[in-house]
Every structure is written in structure tokens, then in C-alpha cells.
Amino acid sequence: MKQGMSLPELIISITILFIVLASAFSMWFAIQRDLIVQRLDREMYDQLSTAKSQILDSVLKSIFIYPPDVNIVLRDNSRFNLNINEKVSYNKLLTISPTSGGYYLNAYLSVPRNPQDALLPNSRMLLYYKKFINWAPQYNTFTLTVVETGGTRVIKLAKIINYPTNITFTTGEGPKVIADYIINNGFTVNYYVVDVTSAYTYTTYTNSITSRSINIQQVEVTIRAQRRYQNIYRNKEIKFKGAVFLEELPIAY
């Protein structure tokens, strides 16, 4: 007659089974966590890459980038209920780009997320507005000596002196959400101009430098996002630069 397991053997067997189950559960949990992390990272990467492509497209095609010290009025009666009356500052980006028969005004800014996410109540959305404008640019012009291999070259530059500062977005001009879950102060823009005191070098735009006699020529954009799933937090940042080509006059668009 076969004897059953003794009590010590039973305890040892149960202990081993418990260890095996705990290890399997720990491995399963780690795999699930890795899958969640990968999904959050991929979603943030895709959105930030899309935002980068859209912003660079506007910058590279633009003939004018609004400087940060210009006061603007932006209104939109869509669900975002936009009503801004303040300086462009360093948390918005506005450009003007040519198109057939006129110009587009492009505006990038972040607003509180709608609807609010209880897990990340301070998260924001990055919006892109695009509006056709009837506008005829006016210029002040001057020359700049550019140092090149084998010598120098004098080019003519233009500063656009008139641009719309009171804009209302109407039906069909509502925004496109190009990035979600942007952290508070997570969309920032640095502005650069060509330093006219030394040939063709970029310098940071300020309100007092001599170089502000010309238009913004380059921007550096930083976008920071955060996602959360239960107690898992993931952060991602993207930083990139885009420049407007210096054009010789006459500028023909």
C-alpha cells in the first residue's frame, strides 16, 4: 500500500509551488509593465514626431515668424473657446507662409486638455490653427555682408513691418490637435536672428539687440509630454530647430 506524503514533504511541495507561482506572476507582471511602457512611449513618440513635422513644415515655408514681444489677439469660438490677448512670448509660435493667391497664418499653442484627465489634471493639448489671410507684406530693407569661401558677398535683407495681430478663427478654421498630454509649460520656443554685427551668425533674440532690426530667422522648439497608466509614468521630450532662408530682394511671392 502506497503511503501519502508526510507533513514535512507536503509543506515543502506547497512552498515550492508557491515560489513557482510567485515567479510566474512576477514575470507576467514585468512583461505586462514592459508592454504598457512600450505602448505609452510609442504613442508619445508618434505624436511628438507628427508635431515636429507639422511645425517644421510651417517654419521652413514661412516668410515671417512673429517675434515674442508682439502683442496679439487670437479668438476661436469652437469648443476650445480661445480668447487670447497677450504677447506671443515663448509659449506660442506664429508664422506666415505663402500660398496660391495669398498667405496662411499658422499658429501653434497649448491649451488645457479637454476633457480633463483625472490622472494628469494639468496636461495640455498642442493645437495648430491655419487661416487664409488677405495680406500684402511691406518691407524695410538693408544690406548684409556675408563671408564666404574666397571672399565676401553683399546680400539684401528685408524686415516685414506689417503683419496681422488681431485674428479670429471661424468655422472651418478650428484647430487640429497635433500632440496630446503636453505637460504644463511643455511647449516652448526660442527665437534667433542673424547677427548683423558679425557676418551670418545666429544670435538669441532679445528686445534690445541691434539684430532685432531684421525678422526672426530661426526657432528652437521644445515639446515635453507625459503619460500615465495607474502608477506608471513616462516622459518624453523632443527638441528641434527650423530656419527661414534669407532671401535676396525683391521677394516675390
Features:
alpha+beta, eight-stranded antiparallel sheet, 13 strands
How do the strands and helices of this protein lay out in sequence?
Elements: H1 7-61, E1 64-65, E2 71-76, E3 82-87, E4 92-99, E5 102-112, E6 124-133, E7 139-148, E8 151-160, E9 166-169, E10 176-195, E11 201-204, E12 218-229, E13 232-243
Parallel strand pairs: 2-9
Antiparallel strand pairs: 1-4, 2-3, 4-5, 5-6, 6-10, 7-8, 10-11, 10-12, 12-13
Rounded average pLDDT: 83
Largest sheet: 8 strands, antiparallel
Q: Tell me the structural class.
A: alpha+beta
Cα radius of gyration in angstroms: 27 Å
Q: How far is it from the N-terminal to the C-terminal residue, by CA?
A: 101 Å
The H/E string reads HEEEEEEEEEEEEE
Summarize the structure.
It is built from one helix and 13 strands. It has 253 residues and is an alpha+beta fold.
Describe the structure.
The protein is of the alpha+beta class. It has one helix and 13 strands; from the N terminus they run αβββββββββββββ. It has one helix at residues 7-61, and strands at 64-65, 71-76, 82-87, 92-99, 102-112, 124-133, 139-148, 151-160, 166-169, 176-195, 201-204, 218-229, 232-243. The strands form three sheets. Strands 1, 4, 5, 6, 10, 11, 12 and 13 form an eight-stranded antiparallel β-sheet that branches. A three-stranded mixed β-sheet has the order 3-2-9, with no helix packed on it. The protein starts with 6 loop residues before the first helix and ends in a 10-residue tail after the last strand. Residues 247-253 have low confidence and may be disordered.
